[in-house]
Amino acid sequence: MKKYIFKRIVYILIALFFIITLTFFLMRIAPGSPFASERALTPAIEKQLNETYGLDNPWYVQYKDYLLNILKLDFGESMKYKGRSTNDMIFQSFPISLALGAQALFLAVGFGVLLGVISAMYHNKLGDYISTIIAVLGISIPSFILAGLMQYFLGLKLGLFPLSGWKGFSYTVMPSFAMALSYMGNVAKMVRSSMLEQNTSEYVKLARAKGLRKWSVVFKHSLRNALLPVITYLGPLTAGVVTGSFIVENIFAIPGLGKHFVTSINNRDYTMIMGTTVFYSILLLFAVLIVDIIYVMVDPRIKLEGAE
């Protein structure tokens, strides 16, 4: 296990190097300037700003300086928010995105598993049809469309939830459901398919023959094995929830990291764009590693390549 984790960390570092390099050069070849939107900038002031942020240096000097700063976990100072470092902006806004993402992840997995179990246990019956319809609708409707519909009907027309902002739990309900619904549909379909397969296995038939009740067999035996595909899906699910929050946070005016990321793209804030990209890349790469380790803990039959 230790050998496998060490190898994966090495691969993560290599992947991060390529992500950092690609992001750096994409930002440099993009047309325009981070100060293009500033009003009435004289050539002298623009030259001074370029010198302050090192943009007048050759590309290889900028690249070297950026790599050295990344090694020190210093993402630099924002080019649009004067006097604010990218690190401070990330660590102030990320807890909001983390809370929203964790809530959406909980809803997606929790309700997805529930719908999948109901659908499998009432196969080709009313419960199966209703669960399947909900899952298909969730997969079909994009999160930003669902967010707009929820704002219009639940927020504006019915007044059940606030339209935007971040001032309490009620403000998290609509954005978290908007992010979670499509992934909830995917989880439900995976659990349904896996549960139907487990219900025909020999050990489930034996448990029923011993007199165990239907739902006791589900929770004690078949559900655990049926959840293995869901655990595998947690890595892409985490990535989807994180990147999906970029749009949803803007729609609901949530002051999270996703909103800062989209704003930085519009403002050509190079340091904020690259810092946020590297930060999210680190989170997602380690999330995939953690999911792989959990998968082995849940199912000891799985052997990790390179593990002792």
Describe this structure in words.
The radius of gyration is 24 Å and the shape is flat. Helix 4 runs antiparallel to helix 5. It has twelve helices and no strands. It has two domains: 1-72; 86-303, MetI-like (MetI-like fold, Orthogonal Bundle). The model has no long low-confidence stretch (mean pLDDT 83). The protein has helices at residues 2-29, 43-52, 59-71, 86-121, 126-140, 143-157, 173-199, 202-209, 214-226, 228-251, 257-267, 270-298. The longest helix has 36 residues, at 86-121. With 308 residues, the protein is an all-alpha fold.
Number of domains: 2
What value does the Rg take, in angstroms? Answer: 24 Å
The span between the termini is 6 Å
Poorly predicted spans:
none
Number of helices: 12
N-to-C series of helices and strands: HHHHHHHHHHHH
CATH architectural group of the largest domain = Orthogonal Bundle
The amount of helix comes to: over 70%
